[in-house]
Structures are given as C-alpha cells and as structure tokens.
Amino acid sequence: MKLFEFLKIVILGITEGITEFLPISSTGHLLILERILNPEFLQDEEFAEMFTVVIQLGAVVAAAMIYFRKLWPFGLTYERKVCIQGPKLYLWLKIIVACLPAMTIGVLFDALFGSLFHGRAASITVMITLILYGIVFLFIEKYRKDNPPSYTTLGSIPVKLALYIGCFQILAMIPGTSRSGITIIGAMLLGASRGVATEFTFYLEIPTLFGASLLKLVKFRFDFDGMQYAILLTAMLVAFLVAYATINWIIEYIKKHDFKVFGWYRIGLGLVILFFLIIL
C-alpha cells in the first residue's frame, strides 16, 4: 500500500475517534473526508459503506474500557462470592430499553436509509442536519437557563424516560445528525442535566454502535480480502486511541462549559459545505 493511502486510513481513524463522542456527527465528517481524500481502498462501494460504520468499533471499545467499572454489574463479596449489583443491573435495563427503538428501526430499514443517502444527496443531507441541529443546540442551552433539570443523577432517570431518550437515536440514521448529539439534545429536552445526558448517551453508544457494526459485518458476511481486513483494523486502532482521549476530555469539558461551541461549529461547517456544493 502507498504511504499516502496509509495516511488516509490514519486520518479517517483520527476523525472517527474525535467526532464519535462529540455532538458534531462522525458519519458526516467521514463522508465529507472520503469525498475530499478519495481513497483508493474505498472505491469498492460495498466496502466503503461498511467501513464508515465498522470503524466505529474502535471508539466503542474505548468507551467500554473507560466505563467498565461503572457498567459491569457483577462483583465479589468479602467471601469471594460473585454478587450482582442491583443499581448497575437496573442501569443496564434502562440502557437496553433505550437502545430498542434505534436497533429495531436499524434492522428493518438499514438498506432503505443506505440507498437514500449517498453521493451528492449525502452531502446535501449532512449540510442540512449540521446546520439544523447546530441551531437546536443553541436553543437547548437557552432553554436550559430558564428550565432547571429535573434529573441530575443517572439513578433518577426512570425506565420510561430512558425509552423516550432512546427514540431520539432513530434520527441518527440520517447522516450529519450525530448519534451522541441528538441523544444529548433529547435527554436535555426531557429534563436531564447536561452531565447526566452526556454520560447516559455514552452508555447507549456502546451497545448501539456494536450492534450497528455487527449488522454491517453480517450483511457483508465478513467477505473481505486480507488488505481490507488490515485497513479496517488499522482504522479501528487509531479510532480507539483517539476516542479514549476524546471521551476523557469531553467529560471534563462539560463540567465547566455548555454545548454552544458545538452548535456554532456545526453551523459553520454546514455553511462551508453549502458553499462548496454551490461552486462545485
């Protein structure tokens, strides 16, 4: 493989790692970069479709490692016997319930969404959703000032509310929306604090992204050559390393800041895409 092509893999992996857990749309950024870089290894349309999804596994593993202690429901007693920790098991119930809407729609309509958003149509969709949800982020921060959160801890979120939050993830099937972004918006609109909305969103990303990646791999029956496997593994490794740092950074960031900067970023990037769509 040429050095420049290898660098493209690294660039895409870095982009996935940075953007997956920031509310700015990893898929949207990857689609834009793929059109700009035009990598040779993505000339195969089927592999390109699968690559954009499966590369997320690296970020999923990073989140799973960071939150392992908070999510692992099994522990040991002083007598070295295995015990089940009720609060964590209840948290998993809420996570599973919240993941059901997006997983159900994903299994039923994955092919349809894939056929609707590709080529120039995907770029136009990304432009619209970046700007639209950027505006929504600015609105939600203004709304929050006048409406203090009702749910300030993960334990205070009821199962029914978790289901409602999960319904927002369905919108993430539209390129440029951002799964983390739309889930955070939904949770905050429904009364969750900024910190609780962000942490619960990251929890949901683990099973949701794992399921989406597995669905793609099964769909293509793992039918790749050795070079394609090497490309996938390299991109996922880079995404894992960068996502690990990004998650820790955003957790600290939201303790002192709001999401307005991401709203303005989305609007600005959307306008840049609009400019290039007009002149090209």
Describe the structure.
The protein has one domain (3-279). 74% of the residues lie in helices and 2% in strands. The chain has 12 helices and 2 strands, in the order H-H-H-H-H-E-E-H-H-H-H-H-H-H. The chain has helices at 3-19, 26-37, 45-54, 56-66, 68-71, 86-116, 120-146, 159-168, 179-189, 194-219, 226-253, 260-279, and strands at 74-76, 82-84. A two-stranded antiparallel ribbon has the order 1-2. Strand 1 (74-76) and strand 2 (82-84) form a beta hairpin. Helix 1 (3-19) runs parallel beside helix 11 (226-253).
Biggest sheet: strand arrangement: 1-2
Largest sheet: 2 strands, antiparallel
Number of helices: 12
Number of strands: 2
Question: Shape from CA axes?
Answer: globular
As a percent range, the share of helical residues equals over 70%
Ends distance: 30 Å
Q: What letter string, H or E per element, gives the SSE order?
A: HHHHHEEHHHHHHH
The total domain count is: 1
pLDDT averaged over residues: 88
Judged by helices, strands and strand pairing, the structural class is mainly alpha
Descriptive labels:
two-stranded antiparallel ribbon; 12 helices; mainly alpha; 280 residues
Briefly, what is this?
The chain has 280 residues and is an all-alpha fold. It has helices spanning 3-19, 26-37, 45-54, 56-66, 68-71, 86-116, 120-146, 159-168, 179-189, 194-219, 226-253, 260-279; strands at residues 74-76, 82-84.
